[in-house]
Amino acid sequence: MSVIADNLAHVRAHAGDAKVIAVSKMQTIEAIRSALIAGQRVFGENRVQEAKTKFSVLRSAFSDIELHLIGPLQTNKAEAAVELFDVIQTLDRPQLAQALASAIRKTGRHPLLYVEVNIGAEPQKSGVAPEALEEFLSYCRDVCALKISGVMCIPPQGKDPRPFFLHMRELAMQFRLHHLSMGMSADYETALSCGATEIRVGTGIFGERGPI
Ligand SMILES: *Cc1c(COP(=O)(O)O)cnc(C)c1O
Predict the structure, then answer these.
(1) Which of 57, 72, 150, 182 has most Cβ atoms within 10 angstroms of its Cβ?
(2) Which residues of 99-136 are buried (b: 16+ CB within 10 A; e: fewer)?
(3) Domain ranges of the chain
(4) What are the tens digits of pLDDT across the range 132-181?
């Protein structure tokens, strides 16, 4: 078994019913292919162009790949993102909601949309403040006619992530959002114990990242 297959088996064994998103940003096509051969089909990327370059090749061999955008999205790339991704996890502002709504109308494609929540209220971080979530969800639904399916977060570095994950679960329940994306290589077990329905694991599966 390859190291990647080994790592995947380990993460999957912990994940139970939760979905494992293999974060393949800055990883080579060969590494991603190893994961595909080990049966992995769900991948996360943080840049539209990088994902397009790598996955247009891989999708011709593996038609059932599910691709998640987990990095920040510029409005001028909304259409390319809607064309490429099955799930966009980083909706975080009204302008982007509008751009996605018009890209969806234009392309006829309907990726699942999650709102990124700045759960630690960190000034430098993207994401909607927890106390602004209700209003933003209404904006997406009522002004842009967008259906929001989930929420995602990255808790603050260097702090116990558990209270942040528990707060995320509360928000997901309050607004009846079924997809709760949280937990990375360092903290996915905590996230799972707090109700994550999907975890995003990069280095814990592929090892250290790029240059690609
Ligand atoms: C890079 C990244 C991950 C994966 O991080 P690892 O520590 O390598 O598991 C998960 N989520 C987001 C949003 C990321 O940017």
Answers:
(1) 182
(2) bbbebbeeeeeebbbbbbbbbbeeeeeebbebeebeeb
(3) 3-206
(4) 999 999 999 999 999 999 999 999 999 999 999 999 999 999 999 999 99
